[in-house]
Amino acid sequence: MKALIRKSVLAVKPYIPGKPIEETKRQLGLKEVIKLASNENSWGPSPKAISAIKRSLSGVNRYPDAQGYYLKKRLAKFFGLSLENFVLGNGSDELIDVVIKTFMEADENIVTSQGTFLEYEIIAQVNDRKVKHAPLRYFKYDLGAMLKLVDKKTKLIFIANPNNPTGTYVTKDEVAQFINALPETVVVVFDEAYDAFIDVDDYPDSLSYLKKKKKIIILRTFSKAYGLAGLRLGYAIASAELVTYMERIRQPFNVNLLAQVAGLAALEDKDFLTKTRRLTLEGKDFIYQELSRMGVGYVLSVANFILVDVGRPGQEVFKSCLKFGVIVREMSQYGLANFIRVTIGTRKENQRFIRVLRKVLAVRT
Ligand SMILES: *Cc1c(COP(=O)(O)O)cnc(C)c1O
Questions:
Q1: What is the average pLDDT value for the chain, to the nearest integer?
Q2: Is the pLDDT of residue 364 over 50?
Q3: What is the CATH number of the domain that holds 143?
Q4: Which of 91, 105, 237, 303 has the maximal Cβ count within 10 Å?
Q5: pTM for this one?
Q6: Given ligand 1 and candidates 221, 331, 341, which is best to mutate, with the most ligand atoms within 8 Å of its CB?
Protein backbone atom coordinates (compact mmCIF):
# COMPACT_ATOMS: atom_id res chain seq x y z
CA MET A 1 0.00 0.00 0.00
CA LYS A 2 2.90 2.34 0.77
CA ALA A 3 3.62 2.58 -2.94
CA LEU A 4 0.35 4.48 -3.32
CA ILE A 5 1.34 7.23 -0.95
CA ARG A 6 3.17 10.44 -1.86
CA LYS A 7 6.79 10.28 -0.65
CA SER A 8 6.57 13.46 1.37
CA VAL A 9 3.56 12.09 3.24
CA LEU A 10 5.48 8.92 4.13
CA ALA A 11 8.19 11.10 5.65
CA VAL A 12 5.85 13.05 7.93
CA LYS A 13 6.16 12.50 11.66
CA PRO A 14 2.60 13.07 12.75
CA TYR A 15 1.82 15.85 15.21
CA ILE A 16 1.20 14.41 18.68
CA PRO A 17 -1.47 16.48 20.38
CA GLY A 18 -1.89 16.87 24.13
CA LYS A 19 -3.61 13.81 25.58
CA PRO A 20 -7.36 14.35 25.94
CA ILE A 21 -8.97 14.18 29.39
CA GLU A 22 -11.60 11.57 28.48
CA GLU A 23 -9.05 9.22 26.92
CA THR A 24 -6.85 9.45 30.00
CA LYS A 25 -9.77 8.67 32.33
CA ARG A 26 -10.72 5.68 30.21
CA GLN A 27 -7.22 4.26 29.82
CA LEU A 28 -6.09 4.70 33.41
CA GLY A 29 -9.41 4.26 35.17
CA LEU A 30 -9.08 7.69 36.80
CA LYS A 31 -11.96 9.92 37.87
CA GLU A 32 -10.27 13.26 38.34
CA VAL A 33 -8.01 14.22 35.48
CA ILE A 34 -6.70 17.69 34.70
CA LYS A 35 -5.16 18.73 31.42
CA LEU A 36 -2.32 21.23 31.42
CA ALA A 37 -0.96 20.09 28.08
CA SER A 38 -2.31 22.23 25.25
CA ASN A 39 -2.20 25.82 26.52
CA GLU A 40 -5.98 26.07 26.50
CA ASN A 41 -7.97 28.44 28.67
CA SER A 42 -8.60 26.69 31.99
CA TRP A 43 -11.46 29.05 32.89
CA GLY A 44 -13.64 27.90 30.04
CA PRO A 45 -14.97 29.78 27.06
CA SER A 46 -16.28 33.28 27.77
CA PRO A 47 -19.88 33.18 29.07
CA LYS A 48 -20.80 35.63 26.32
CA ALA A 49 -19.48 33.20 23.72
CA ILE A 50 -21.54 30.39 25.24
CA SER A 51 -24.74 32.48 25.04
CA ALA A 52 -24.00 33.41 21.45
CA ILE A 53 -23.47 29.76 20.53
CA LYS A 54 -26.75 28.74 22.18
CA ARG A 55 -28.63 31.47 20.34
CA SER A 56 -27.23 30.28 17.01
CA LEU A 57 -27.62 26.53 17.42
CA SER A 58 -30.92 26.33 15.56
CA GLY A 59 -29.28 27.93 12.54
CA VAL A 60 -26.73 25.21 11.84
CA ASN A 61 -28.80 23.73 9.02
CA ARG A 62 -27.44 26.66 6.97
CA TYR A 63 -23.92 27.10 5.67
CA PRO A 64 -21.92 29.70 7.55
CA ASP A 65 -21.23 33.11 6.04
CA ALA A 66 -18.34 32.34 3.68
CA GLN A 67 -17.00 35.88 4.10
CA GLY A 68 -17.25 35.93 7.89
CA TYR A 69 -18.49 39.48 7.43
CA TYR A 70 -19.51 40.38 11.00
CA LEU A 71 -16.47 38.85 12.61
CA LYS A 72 -14.11 40.53 10.16
CA LYS A 73 -15.90 43.82 10.65
CA ARG A 74 -15.47 43.55 14.41
CA LEU A 75 -11.80 42.61 14.02
CA ALA A 76 -11.27 45.54 11.67
CA LYS A 77 -12.71 47.91 14.27
CA PHE A 78 -10.65 46.28 17.01
CA PHE A 79 -7.38 46.87 15.11
CA GLY A 80 -8.26 50.07 13.28
CA LEU A 81 -7.91 48.26 9.95
CA SER A 82 -10.36 47.31 7.23
CA LEU A 83 -12.21 44.08 6.46
CA GLU A 84 -9.85 43.50 3.56
CA ASN A 85 -6.96 42.99 5.96
CA PHE A 86 -8.29 39.72 7.41
CA VAL A 87 -8.42 36.05 6.48
CA LEU A 88 -10.34 33.78 8.84
CA GLY A 89 -9.14 30.24 9.43
CA ASN A 90 -10.20 26.96 10.96
CA GLY A 91 -7.73 27.66 13.72
CA SER A 92 -4.52 29.48 12.87
CA ASP A 93 -3.11 26.05 11.98
CA GLU A 94 -5.15 26.17 8.79
CA LEU A 95 -3.73 29.58 7.98
CA ILE A 96 -0.18 28.23 8.18
CA ASP A 97 -1.21 25.87 5.38
CA VAL A 98 -2.92 28.67 3.46
CA VAL A 99 0.17 30.87 3.71
CA ILE A 100 2.50 28.13 2.49
CA LYS A 101 0.19 27.28 -0.42
CA THR A 102 -0.24 30.93 -1.37
CA PHE A 103 3.39 31.96 -1.44
CA MET A 104 5.75 29.07 -1.99
CA GLU A 105 7.01 27.65 -5.25
CA ALA A 106 8.32 24.07 -5.25
CA ASP A 107 12.00 25.02 -4.99
CA GLU A 108 11.61 27.67 -2.31
CA ASN A 109 12.25 27.32 1.41
CA ILE A 110 11.06 28.44 4.83
CA VAL A 111 13.37 29.66 7.58
CA THR A 112 12.38 29.23 11.19
CA SER A 113 13.90 28.04 14.47
CA GLN A 114 14.48 24.70 16.11
CA GLY A 115 12.47 24.10 19.26
CA THR A 116 9.40 25.84 17.94
CA PHE A 117 5.81 25.07 16.95
CA LEU A 118 5.95 21.79 15.02
CA GLU A 119 3.13 22.60 12.63
CA TYR A 120 5.39 24.81 10.48
CA GLU A 121 7.54 21.84 9.61
CA ILE A 122 4.72 19.32 9.30
CA ILE A 123 2.55 21.48 7.07
CA ALA A 124 5.56 22.44 4.94
CA GLN A 125 6.45 18.79 4.55
CA VAL A 126 2.95 17.81 3.50
CA ASN A 127 3.17 20.57 0.88
CA ASP A 128 6.59 19.35 -0.30
CA ARG A 129 8.30 22.51 0.87
CA LYS A 130 11.71 22.71 2.55
CA VAL A 131 12.32 24.18 6.00
CA LYS A 132 15.62 25.42 7.41
CA HIS A 133 16.00 25.70 11.18
CA ALA A 134 18.39 27.89 13.12
CA PRO A 135 19.24 26.62 16.61
CA LEU A 136 17.62 28.21 19.65
CA ARG A 137 19.89 30.47 21.67
CA TYR A 138 19.20 30.33 25.40
CA PHE A 139 15.75 28.93 24.54
CA LYS A 140 15.08 31.94 22.33
CA TYR A 141 14.72 32.45 18.59
CA ASP A 142 18.12 33.56 17.29
CA LEU A 143 17.13 36.02 14.57
CA GLY A 144 20.78 36.64 13.65
CA ALA A 145 21.31 32.93 12.97
CA MET A 146 18.05 32.80 11.03
CA LEU A 147 19.13 35.72 8.87
CA LYS A 148 22.23 33.74 7.90
CA LEU A 149 20.01 30.89 6.67
CA VAL A 150 18.08 33.17 4.33
CA ASP A 151 19.07 32.61 0.70
CA LYS A 152 17.72 33.44 -2.75
CA LYS A 153 15.15 30.69 -2.43
CA THR A 154 13.78 31.74 0.96
CA LYS A 155 10.16 32.86 0.67
CA LEU A 156 8.74 32.65 4.19
CA ILE A 157 10.00 33.17 7.73
CA PHE A 158 7.96 31.79 10.61
CA ILE A 159 8.44 33.45 13.99
CA ALA A 160 6.35 32.19 16.89
CA ASN A 161 6.35 35.16 19.22
CA PRO A 162 6.10 34.25 22.05
CA ASN A 163 7.59 30.92 21.13
CA ASN A 164 5.85 27.67 21.91
CA PRO A 165 7.16 25.57 23.72
CA THR A 166 9.80 27.81 25.34
CA GLY A 167 7.63 30.82 26.27
CA THR A 168 10.39 33.24 25.27
CA TYR A 169 9.95 36.20 22.92
CA VAL A 170 11.98 38.23 20.47
CA THR A 171 12.11 41.93 21.29
CA LYS A 172 11.06 45.01 19.40
CA ASP A 173 14.69 45.93 18.62
CA GLU A 174 15.63 42.44 17.51
CA VAL A 175 12.68 42.31 15.15
CA ALA A 176 13.37 45.80 13.79
CA GLN A 177 16.93 44.85 12.94
CA PHE A 178 15.89 41.57 11.41
CA ILE A 179 13.18 43.04 9.19
CA ASN A 180 15.44 45.80 7.94
CA ALA A 181 18.09 43.29 6.95
CA LEU A 182 15.73 41.00 5.02
CA PRO A 183 15.40 41.07 1.24
CA GLU A 184 12.09 42.41 -0.13
CA THR A 185 11.29 38.99 -1.58
CA VAL A 186 10.68 37.41 1.82
CA VAL A 187 7.40 37.38 3.76
CA VAL A 188 7.63 37.27 7.56
CA VAL A 189 4.88 35.45 9.44
CA PHE A 190 4.49 36.45 13.09
CA ASP A 191 2.55 33.73 14.86
CA GLU A 192 1.18 35.54 17.91
CA ALA A 193 -1.01 32.87 19.46
CA TYR A 194 -0.16 34.09 22.98
CA ASP A 195 -0.08 37.86 22.54
CA ALA A 196 -2.88 38.35 25.08
CA PHE A 197 -0.60 37.17 27.90
CA ILE A 198 2.30 39.53 27.19
CA ASP A 199 3.38 41.62 30.18
CA VAL A 200 6.66 43.11 28.98
CA ASP A 201 7.35 46.51 27.40
CA ASP A 202 9.69 45.52 24.60
CA TYR A 203 7.37 43.12 22.78
CA PRO A 204 7.27 44.14 19.10
CA ASP A 205 4.27 45.91 17.62
CA SER A 206 4.01 43.76 14.51
CA LEU A 207 1.04 45.79 13.22
CA SER A 208 3.31 48.78 12.85
CA TYR A 209 5.23 46.87 10.16
CA LEU A 210 2.01 46.25 8.29
CA LYS A 211 1.34 49.97 8.40
CA LYS A 212 4.86 50.59 7.08
CA LYS A 213 4.00 48.33 4.12
CA LYS A 214 6.47 45.63 5.09
CA LYS A 215 5.67 42.18 3.76
CA ILE A 216 4.37 40.58 6.89
CA ILE A 217 1.50 38.39 8.02
CA ILE A 218 0.28 38.21 11.59
CA LEU A 219 -1.48 35.08 12.86
CA ARG A 220 -3.76 35.21 15.88
CA THR A 221 -6.04 32.61 17.42
CA PHE A 222 -9.12 32.30 19.59
CA SER A 223 -7.83 28.99 20.97
CA LYS A 224 -5.78 30.24 23.88
CA ALA A 225 -6.76 33.37 25.85
CA TYR A 226 -10.20 33.51 24.21
CA GLY A 227 -10.99 29.95 25.25
CA LEU A 228 -12.40 28.64 21.97
CA ALA A 229 -9.89 25.90 21.06
CA GLY A 230 -12.67 23.37 20.44
CA LEU A 231 -14.40 25.54 17.86
CA ARG A 232 -11.29 26.13 15.72
CA LEU A 233 -10.96 29.80 14.93
CA GLY A 234 -7.99 31.92 13.99
CA TYR A 235 -7.21 34.79 11.65
CA ALA A 236 -4.44 36.30 9.61
CA ILE A 237 -3.81 40.03 9.32
CA ALA A 238 -2.04 41.21 6.18
CA SER A 239 -2.12 43.84 3.46
CA ALA A 240 -5.34 43.84 1.43
CA GLU A 241 -3.42 42.65 -1.60
CA LEU A 242 -1.89 39.61 0.08
CA VAL A 243 -5.27 38.83 1.62
CA THR A 244 -6.95 38.53 -1.79
CA TYR A 245 -4.53 35.76 -2.78
CA MET A 246 -4.80 33.93 0.52
CA GLU A 247 -8.59 34.04 0.18
CA ARG A 248 -8.26 32.00 -3.02
CA ILE A 249 -6.65 29.15 -1.16
CA ARG A 250 -8.86 28.69 1.88
CA GLN A 251 -11.98 26.52 1.66
CA PRO A 252 -15.14 28.64 1.24
CA PHE A 253 -16.78 27.43 4.47
CA ASN A 254 -13.64 26.84 6.52
CA VAL A 255 -14.94 28.68 9.59
CA ASN A 256 -18.15 27.22 10.94
CA LEU A 257 -21.18 29.19 11.97
CA LEU A 258 -20.80 28.65 15.74
CA ALA A 259 -17.16 29.65 15.67
CA GLN A 260 -18.03 32.91 13.91
CA VAL A 261 -20.66 33.98 16.46
CA ALA A 262 -18.59 32.76 19.41
CA GLY A 263 -15.53 34.65 18.20
CA LEU A 264 -17.51 37.82 17.83
CA ALA A 265 -18.94 37.49 21.35
CA ALA A 266 -15.55 36.57 22.84
CA LEU A 267 -14.02 39.74 21.41
CA GLU A 268 -16.66 41.75 23.27
CA ASP A 269 -16.02 40.00 26.58
CA LYS A 270 -13.24 42.13 27.98
CA ASP A 271 -13.94 41.00 31.55
CA PHE A 272 -13.31 37.39 30.67
CA LEU A 273 -10.07 38.24 28.91
CA THR A 274 -8.91 40.42 31.79
CA LYS A 275 -9.71 37.68 34.29
CA THR A 276 -7.92 35.05 32.19
CA ARG A 277 -4.86 37.24 31.94
CA ARG A 278 -4.77 38.14 35.63
CA LEU A 279 -5.23 34.56 36.86
CA THR A 280 -2.69 33.27 34.34
CA LEU A 281 -0.04 35.72 35.52
CA GLU A 282 -0.81 34.90 39.17
CA GLY A 283 -0.68 31.17 38.46
CA LYS A 284 2.59 31.53 36.61
CA ASP A 285 4.18 33.29 39.59
CA PHE A 286 2.92 30.57 41.90
CA ILE A 287 4.42 27.81 39.73
CA TYR A 288 7.73 29.68 39.33
CA GLN A 289 7.94 30.04 43.09
CA GLU A 290 7.16 26.41 43.80
CA LEU A 291 9.58 25.14 41.15
CA SER A 292 12.32 27.33 42.59
CA ARG A 293 11.61 25.97 46.06
CA MET A 294 11.93 22.45 44.67
CA GLY A 295 15.19 23.36 42.95
CA VAL A 296 13.68 22.60 39.56
CA GLY A 297 14.78 24.72 36.61
CA TYR A 298 12.45 26.48 34.19
CA VAL A 299 12.47 29.03 31.40
CA LEU A 300 10.86 32.42 32.10
CA SER A 301 7.74 32.66 29.96
CA VAL A 302 5.60 35.50 28.64
CA ALA A 303 2.90 33.03 27.58
CA ASN A 304 0.40 30.84 29.49
CA PHE A 305 2.76 27.87 29.87
CA ILE A 306 6.16 27.09 31.32
CA LEU A 307 8.96 24.91 29.95
CA VAL A 308 10.25 22.96 32.94
CA ASP A 309 13.69 21.34 33.11
CA VAL A 310 12.98 18.07 34.87
CA GLY A 311 16.58 16.88 34.48
CA ARG A 312 15.54 13.41 33.32
CA PRO A 313 13.56 12.09 30.39
CA GLY A 314 10.42 14.20 30.19
CA GLN A 315 8.62 11.21 28.71
CA GLU A 316 8.95 9.41 32.08
CA VAL A 317 7.83 12.44 34.05
CA PHE A 318 4.88 12.83 31.72
CA LYS A 319 3.85 9.20 32.26
CA SER A 320 4.26 9.42 36.03
CA CYS A 321 2.20 12.61 36.22
CA LEU A 322 -0.46 10.91 34.11
CA LYS A 323 -0.84 8.16 36.71
CA PHE A 324 -1.77 10.88 39.18
CA GLY A 325 -4.29 12.34 36.74
CA VAL A 326 -2.23 15.32 35.57
CA ILE A 327 -1.65 15.64 31.84
CA VAL A 328 1.40 17.68 30.87
CA ARG A 329 3.34 17.65 27.60
CA GLU A 330 6.60 15.83 27.05
CA MET A 331 9.01 17.63 24.74
CA SER A 332 11.14 15.01 22.97
CA GLN A 333 9.58 15.87 19.61
CA TYR A 334 10.87 19.40 20.07
CA GLY A 335 14.43 18.25 20.77
CA LEU A 336 13.97 19.04 24.47
CA ALA A 337 14.03 15.52 25.88
CA ASN A 338 14.63 16.49 29.51
CA PHE A 339 11.79 18.98 29.67
CA ILE A 340 8.06 19.06 30.11
CA ARG A 341 5.72 21.90 29.25
CA VAL A 342 2.93 22.78 31.63
CA THR A 343 0.02 25.10 30.93
CA ILE A 344 -0.99 27.55 33.65
CA GLY A 345 -4.33 26.35 35.00
CA THR A 346 -6.69 27.41 37.74
CA ARG A 347 -5.25 27.84 41.22
CA LYS A 348 -6.41 24.35 42.20
CA GLU A 349 -4.96 22.80 39.06
CA ASN A 350 -1.62 24.51 39.59
CA GLN A 351 -1.49 23.32 43.18
CA ARG A 352 -2.28 19.80 42.11
CA PHE A 353 0.38 19.89 39.39
CA ILE A 354 2.99 21.01 41.90
CA ARG A 355 1.92 18.36 44.42
CA VAL A 356 2.15 15.65 41.78
CA LEU A 357 5.44 16.89 40.33
CA ARG A 358 6.96 16.96 43.80
CA LYS A 359 5.96 13.34 44.28
CA VAL A 360 7.06 12.28 40.81
CA LEU A 361 10.50 13.90 41.00
CA ALA A 362 11.15 12.78 44.54
CA VAL A 363 10.36 9.17 43.67
CA ARG A 364 13.55 8.78 41.69
CA THR A 365 16.01 10.91 43.61
C1 LIG B 1 -1.73 26.93 19.80
C2 LIG B 1 -0.88 27.53 18.74
C3 LIG B 1 -1.39 27.84 17.48
C4 LIG B 1 -2.68 27.48 16.95
O5 LIG B 1 -3.72 27.32 17.24
P6 LIG B 1 -5.10 27.10 16.52
O7 LIG B 1 -5.85 26.40 17.57
O8 LIG B 1 -4.87 26.31 15.28
O9 LIG B 1 -5.59 28.47 16.23
C10 LIG B 1 -0.56 28.46 16.56
N11 LIG B 1 0.68 28.76 16.86
C12 LIG B 1 1.21 28.49 18.04
C13 LIG B 1 2.61 28.88 18.32
C14 LIG B 1 0.45 27.84 19.02
O15 LIG B 1 1.01 27.54 20.18
A1: 96
A2: no
A3: 3.40.640.10
A4: 303
A5: 0.96
A6: 221
Of 226, 243, 268, which residue is a domain's last? Answer: 268
158: Cβ below 6 Å to ligand 1? no
Q: How many CB atoms are located within 10 Å of the residue 1 CB?
A: 4
Ligand 1 centroid to 88 CA: how many Å? 14
Q: Which domain holds residue 299?
A: 2-44+271-361
Q: What is the pLDDT of residues 108-121, one digit of tens each?
A: 999 999 999 999 99
Mean pLDDT, rounded, for 215-221: 98
196 and 137 within one domain:
yes
Give the sheet arrangement for strand 297-299, strand by strand. 297-299, 305-309, 339-343, 329-330
Q: Which residues contact 261 (CB under 8 A, 6 or more apart)?
A: 52, 53, 55, 56
The answer to whether 312 and 327 have CB atoms below 8 angstroms apart is no
Instruction: Give distance in angstroms: CA of 223 to centre of ligand 1.
Output: 7
Phi/psi at 11 (5° precision) = -80, -10
Average pLDDT over residues 239-248: 98
Q: How far is CA 7 from CA 125, 127, 181, in A?
A: 10, 11, 36
Total domains in the fold of the chain? 2
Band the pLDDT of 14: cuts 50, 70, 90: confident
Shared-domain flag, residues 212 and 349: no
Those residues whose C-beta lies under 8 Å from the C-beta of residue 93, and which sit 6 or more positions away, are: 119, 123, 234
